[in-house]
Specification:
Layout lengths: L6 E5 L2 E7 L2 H10 L16 E8 L2 E6 L2 E6 L6 H14 L5 E10 L2 E6 L6 H10 L3 E4 L2 E4 L5 E2 L5 E3 L7 E3 L15 E9 L6 E4 L2 H10 L11 H9 L3 E7 L2 H15 L1
Parallel strand pairs: 2-3, 7-13, 13-15
Antiparallel strand pairs: 1-2, 3-4, 4-5, 6-7, 6-8, 6-9, 9-10, 11-12, 14-15
Helix pairs in contact: 3-6, 4-5
Length: 263
């Protein structure tokens, strides 16, 4: 393990070692490598993933398992690639948990899932919900256990805010808490973003919500024979909806009204 600005963190069975050369690199790694999980000193256990940010060519370079994967003018600009490397390593090592592409927040002790593909606007909805008092679980993956409960996946949010590049943020930037344990699924909202559209949703049967989760899982179904049972348990007590929404602020107003009316 590199000795400069380094620490270790364990996330969902994945042993991660990180090192930053220089203050900027060290700050970025501390802030954005699963910031809510405890850090330890790297031991003798062989890491599953080694991340390093170091100065290079007048800027900074990110290395993953000693292979250079990205460079940028500032260390902060490497965070999207850093997060993708973390996601890939963790998802490859999941055992009991099954993943779905979904934003997840906690409201009143139950999880709200916002399934959708990458770049579908999940992060903007999650960020606005955090501003309104929700507890952060994830902006990209819902991790579901065999009982159908969702576990926090506390990676940093990656926001676009109308820009082509992604900008990282943490739950604390929205004065929000990070979830610390599994929660039952209360609501599943599959929303398509339509910039000039309006809020329009309908209640859908849980069987349709189950299909939505299956369409948005990164797992290969043939390699995860239990996944239908796991997702069936997740939707079993959830109110399920599908439809369209416009901007995040307007959509969250409607989402909170919907949830408040269902409590």
């Amino acid at each position: 393990m590199p000795e400069t600005g380094g620490f270790a963190v364990r996330a969902f069975g994945c042993n991660i070692h990180v090192a930053g050369e220089g203050e900027d690199a060290q700050i970025v790694l501390e802030r954005y490598v699963f910031p809510s999980l405890p850090r330890t000193v790297a031991g003798d256990e062989k890491p599953d993933l080694v991340l390093r940010i170091a100065p290079a060519g007048g800027g900074f370079q990110l290395s993953v398992n000693e292979a250079a994967v990205a460079s940028a003018a500032g260390a902060i600009d490497l965070v999207p690639e850093l997060v993708r490397a973390l996601d890939e390593a963790v998802l490859a090592r999941l055992s009991a948990l099954r993943a779905v592409h979904a934003g997840v927040v906690l409201l009143g002790g139950r999880a709200l899932l916002l399934p959708g593909a990458t770049h579908s606007g999940k992060s903007s909805l999650v960020a606005e919900l955090l501003r309104r008092g929700a507890v952060y679980y994830s902006d990209e993956y819902a991790l579901i256990d065999p009982e159908g409960h969702v576990h926090p996946y506390p990676r940093p949010l990656l926001l676009r805010a109308g820009r082509p590049e992604q900008v990282p943020a943490r739950a604390e930037d929205f004065n929000a808490q990070v979830g610390d344990g599994p929660a039952p699924v209360g609501w599943i909202l599959a929303l398509e973003y339509e910039p000039v559209g309006a809020w329009s949703i309908v209640a859908v049967p849980q069987s349709m919500a189950l299909l939505t989760l299956l369409r948005n899982t990164p797992h290969i179904l043939a390699e995860s024979p239990d996944i239908v049972r796991v997702f069936h348990r997740a939707v079993a007590r959830a109110a399920c909806y599908a439809g369209s929404r416009a901007d995040a602020v307007d959509a969250v107003e409607h989402i909170l009204r919907l949830i408040d009316g269902a409590r």
